[in-house]
Amino acid sequence: MLGVHALQLGLVRCYGARISIDMKFGPATKKALRAAQRKVGIRDDGIFGPTSNYSMRWPEYYDNGQFTGRCIRN
After folding, report:
1. Can you give the pTM of this predicted structure?
2. 8 Å CB contact between 68 and 61
């Protein structure tokens, strides 16, 4: 479930989602993903696939693992 954890961190840090980072892809995570998909202009189906991964921004981290405060594209 590390992928869900990374997705939730990205939704919280880069899209301002107010969801728990609980490593569970539940209704709140799906709703936040759909909102992020709409924001980046892709189909808001709530399915995290290659298009979402490529289109969304993700937290950037320093080498020590600390969040830089910036969100970037992969």
Report:
1. 0.93
2. yes
